[in-house]
Amino acid sequence: MREELLAFVSRHGTLLEPDAVEFLLAQHDPVGCVEALLETRPEAPFVLTLRDVQGAGEIGRQASTRLVVRPAAEPVSASPSLTASFARAGEEAADREPDVRILRDITGRSTCEGTLADFTRYFRHRFHVLRNMVRARRELGGAQDIAKARRSTREVGIIGMVADVRTTKNGHRVFEIEDDTDQIAVLLPADSALASEPVVMDEVVGVVGIVNDRGLLIAKSVVRPDIPTSRPFRGARDHVRAAFMSDIHVGSRTFLEDKWSKVSDWLGGNDEVARSVRYLIVIGDVVDGIGVYPRQDEELAIEDIYGQYEALARMIAALPDRLTVIMLPGNHDAVRPAEPQPAFPTSIQKLFDSNVIFAGNPSLVSLEGVRILAYHGRSMDDLVSAIPGMSYQRPLDVMKAMLRMRHLAPIYGGKTPIAPEAEDHLIIADVPDIFATGHVHAAGIDQYRGVVLVNASTWQAQTPYQKMRNIEPMPARLPIVDLATGQAVLRAF
Ligand SMILES: [Fe+2]
Ligand SMILES: [Fe+2]
């Protein structure tokens, strides 16, 4: 979309400020917005500023019926409580046709064979896409190649991929970054606020600073691609709701059958909120799998992989008919472990009713025009151990870090296996309206710069492995998001 937008404005002989580009890309129809704006002007201006395009919504609404102006978001509870309820009554979900589109997903498009050439191409793609995002930030608009910057005596901006991170014995943090031309060591001085700035391997960052006489770049600031600031929630027209589940782990001895009965009864019952739930997004680890970790068979109630999916299919079939279910795999499921993971194979899909739509992990899914980025969340294992202060109990912090890095799984070579596809599908290319994960068996709702964040709990009790590692899960919570306002609530069962 970025290229389409830039091509459109250049055809009209005008330029867009980087901030204006970001603002437009966050809109429902970026090209339509600019077109509507230009129609109101006798002559195309030399540069369109952020202010110009922010005014375009109002002008465009009068000028063009193609512009969809969305209602502003009601605030998402900053400290969500388990008893939170919706501010507005919901629509009857049963009266509606589903509106689901899978916008991005690897399924059927995997091309990689894992050769060295594949990896080179994969990282090159990651670098180029994320570099363009960093370059769109005001501070790095004039970024130089590292080879050129290292000869400069003035303040410089560079953008590179992190190749090494370490702490010196004096407490300075040093990381190496590289681009197509060269590599340079960046120093975050121990006595500056930057010393605590988390930097992880293989992410793409911008750095502003001065190169000292030893060829070390002394950083003044570190700039991430991030997502645009103030951004209203682009809601659906009606107050239909989406519920989120993850990590059901059917087939495990610790699967919480009684809690499942409760949530299943509630969804099928007469509660006003339950009746407004139109969509159920299930974000991976839907069964426990087999051979996922050593001696797993001792913890299985169902030892046959198809038996596990059949049991799940019966559970899903017992949910009310009005629900459309979107199901992704996770690291316990029967698809390739390397991310991006494709949707379940036909042999598994055919066990389920036709109200279940299968998608890859990650996927960008549109529900009634609201874009949901769903990702199981395996990379949290790597990010929690790489970033000081992050924890399994606070997955929403990790999700915010992913949005700032615009990448779901930046660290290569950790616990998250990554397939070197021709394009990096783990880049957060489009800013979603809702970002949902699972995997860590925690639960929470929050928001970051207008994006609703959901971590979707689990339906499995504490496992012996979690007990050994002192991980307390938060099972049997159901996050529900109103697709009109973005308001999220968390229900305990
Ligand atoms: Fe899990
Ligand atoms: Fe998982």
Estimate nothing, just give the exact number of structural domains.
3
Task: Outline the low-pLDDT stretches.
Answer: 56-83
The largest sheet, given as strand count, sense and whether it forms a barrel, is:
6 strands, mixed
* The level-1 CATH class of the largest domain: Alpha Beta
What's the average pLDDT? Answer: 89
The strand order across the widest sheet is 3-13-14-15-17-16
Task: Give the N-to-C terminal Cα separation.
Answer: 42 Å
Which percent bin holds the helix content?
A: 10-25%
Structural features, described:
The protein is of the alpha/beta class and 493 residues long. The protein folds into three domains: 2-63; 93-111 and 230-492, Purple Acid Phosphatase, chain A, domain 2 (4-Layer Sandwich); 138-223, OB fold (Dihydrolipoamide Acetyltransferase, E2P) (Beta Barrel), CATH 2.40.50.140. The chain has 13 helices and 19 strands. It has helices at 2-11, 18-25, 30-39, 50-63, 116-135, 146-149, 257-268, 272-276, 305-317, 346-349, 380-386, 395-405, 464-468; strands spanning 15-16, 47-48, 100-104, 155-167, 173-178, 183-188, 204-211, 216-223, 241-245, 277-283, 324-328, 356-358, 363-367, 370-375, 434-437, 443-448, 451-456, 477-482, 488-492. The strands form four sheets. The protein has a six-stranded mixed sheet with strand order 3-13-14-15-17-16, covered by helices on one side. Helix 2 packs across helix 4 and helix 3 crosses helix 4. The two termini are 42 Å apart. One fe (ii) ion binds at residues 247, 249, 285, 332, 439, 441.
